[in-house]
Amino acid sequence: MILNPTPVSTRDLSYDAKTGTFTAEASSLPAPGRVYDDACDFGYTVISHLSGTKVVFVEDFQQRDRDDILYTVYLPTHESGRRIDGIRLHVFND
Fold it and tell me: For residue 77, what are the β-bridge partners?
């Protein structure tokens, strides 16, 4: 079952319509929360400030350099557990 991890308004994110990518700096967001009741995956519930629509994003991978995490990529998931194509969330480590 999908939980309701940490809520984040689209007001708190930047959006690039060309790439379908929401972005934010880690310091401007609360910590991500658990996405599934039977796993330890972390993510966010992104809530549209225009429509109120909620989409759960789950961590997919971390882009790293030699010393640090550069950013974390979160992908949207459907209640069925399948992924939703076309949008993503990048949270940059600042």
Answer: 56, 83
User: CB within 8 A of 61, min separation 6: which ones?
Assistant: 72, 73
Q: Which residues pair with 59 in a beta bridge?
A: 74
Locate tokens 């640090």: which residue? Answer: 68
Amino acid identity of residue 75, one-letter, is L
Question: What letter represents residue 62's amino acid?
Answer: Q
pTM over 0.85: yes
| pLDDT in the model for residue 81 | 56
Instruction: In whole angstroms, give the CA distance from residue 52 to residue 32.
Output: 20
In this structure, what DSSP letter does residue 83 have?
Answer: B
CB 24 within 8 A of CB 57: no
